[in-house]
DNA sequence: CGCATACTTGATAGGTTTCAAACTGAGTGG
DNA sequence: CCACTCAGTTTGAAACCTATCAAGTATGCG
């Protein structure tokens, strides 16, 4: 079931990526399970690796569920430095997989995390902060999903995701994901995502030199929608 | 700004409600801020009480944001035993208020929580579990918001909320909230919530003896929608 | 009893999904 | 090197659904 995954790479990540990790997890612990995979490869199902907490080290991971009608719904896009648990409850049916090539995650058991915190209390505070940031992000995502029109959803997604990608207020970003991913993430069809991108371009809010390249021309237009 | 709130009640909660709280928070700490309020009263703004972590002790609290267009979006409904932080990020604009009368919350500083955990490591594990359950719940809520039709959203909301209310698979629940709250929580208009309730009744999935009383007649119909 | 709040139903306009088709670009094999 | 393939993107048209405005009904409380 881990077919295709590279386990325990000797040199899993380059230095710049690692800097996104919390202090004590910065250097990989020998007890951590490190996985690297291409886009679409599963990181862990709900059964296997239960109880593990994963830290995204490089690339991008998506946590999602397949609904009875066959629709995929992405509940979380995880960038390097984000943590994710698959053990949220009794019958949680979420899957975690790489959303881009060369995605690297490190898995820790809860017990191991506790040991590391005991050795370094500062790590505990950092993780606590990470978890509450994670909650805050999910709540903002709920706000996006709750918006009425599709353009509003796309506009606020772009603002939110751009800020996460560059941790600032960038004027240009390169989307690491497809329109399908965006659609499944903000709860509209991929065609509507396209139409909204076109609409935002038409209104002068953004520019699309290439499909994946998004230039923010007029930020206030985007903000006024959400 | 705390007008109307009763601070530090001597006997804030009855025994049955307290049992929902994690072990060490079960007995109120003298350093906790205990608040009790009627429906609609604000528990804390984003400025005041920053850094506090609240535990809902009795009643029901709603965490929400008012959007530029005036729409209220509820990102979380919190039942007794749930924890909530208002300090998720730099410019978080969420508000927390009582959703029903006689709602009681207890506020702890992070420092105090850390001290309590240091004294009782088991509390730390319980809180960690609570936090991950909280994340899992938000992700399931994202699934609900991501559903396509309104009936699907209402159906899955009813299943989810019924299970939370009785921690089981009840056949009848009493909704503690209005149609407006439900609407703002699942991202549709209150009129559509009504229509979906009617539609579900017509299909024989539920029965509505009174507007707030929901009998689950045929659970599989509800489940087949989500 | 009267008022206020909550709930329900109706009609219409507007937006989104869906199905379809065309277009683009990158990678591959001949 | 080019044609080909395939995944991703974009646009079009029609059916469907939902928001909105509006009005009416119930319910609870003073």
Give a verbal description of the structure.
Two copies of one chain form a homodimer. Chain A has 226 residues and is an alpha+beta fold. The first copy, chain A, contains seven helices and twelve strands. Chain A binds a DNA duplex (30 and 30 nucleotides) through helix 6.
Structural features:
226 residues, alpha+beta, 4-stranded antiparallel β-sheet, DNA-binding
Summed over residues and divided by their number, the pLDDT of chain A gives a mean of 87
Q: Biggest interface between protein chains, with counts per chain?
A: A-B, 38 and 38 residues
Unreliable spans of chain A are: 6-18
Order of helices and strands of chain A: EHEEEEEEEEHHHEHHEEH
The termini of chain A sit apart by 42 Å
Contiguous helical run count of chain A = 7
Spatial arrangement of strands, main beta sheet of chain A? 1-2-9-4-7
Could you tell me the number of beta strands of chain A? 12
Give the oligomeric state. Answer: homodimer
Over all CA atoms, what is the radius of gyration of chain A?
18 Å
The dominant shape of chain A is globular
The helix content of chain A is 25-40%
* Helix/strand/pairing category of chain A: alpha+beta
Strand content of chain A: 15-25%
Characterize the main sheet of chain A. 5 strands, antiparallel
């Amino acid at each position: 079931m881990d077919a295709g995954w590279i386990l325990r790479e000797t040199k899993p990540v380059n230095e710049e990526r690692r800097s996104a990790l919390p202090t004590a997890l910065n250097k990989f612990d020998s007890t951590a399970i490190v996985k690297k995979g291409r886009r679409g490869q599963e990181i862990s199902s709900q059964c296997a690796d239960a109880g593990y907490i994963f830290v995204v080290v490089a690339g991008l991971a998506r946590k999602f569920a397949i609904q009875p009608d066959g629709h995929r719904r992405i509940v979380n896009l995880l960038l390097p430095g984000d943590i994710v648990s698959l053990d949220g409850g009794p019958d949680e049916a979420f899957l975690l997989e790489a959303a881009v090539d060369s995605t690297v995650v490190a898995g820790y058991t809860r017990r191991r995390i506790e040991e590391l915190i005991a050795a370094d209390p500062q790590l505990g505070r950092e993780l606590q902060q990470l978890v509450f940031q994670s909650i805050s992000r999910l709540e903002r995502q709920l706000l996006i999903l709750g918006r009425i029109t599709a353009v509003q959803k796309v506009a606020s997604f772009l603002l939110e995701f751009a800020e996460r990608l560059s941790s600032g207020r960038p004027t240009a970003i390169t989307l690491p994901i497809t329109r399908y991913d965006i659609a499944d993430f903000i709860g509209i069809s991929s065609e509507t995502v396209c139409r909204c991108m076109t609409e935002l371009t038409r209104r002068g809010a953004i520019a699309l030199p290439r499909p994946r390249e998004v230039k923010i021309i007029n930020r206030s237009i985007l903000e006024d929608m959400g």
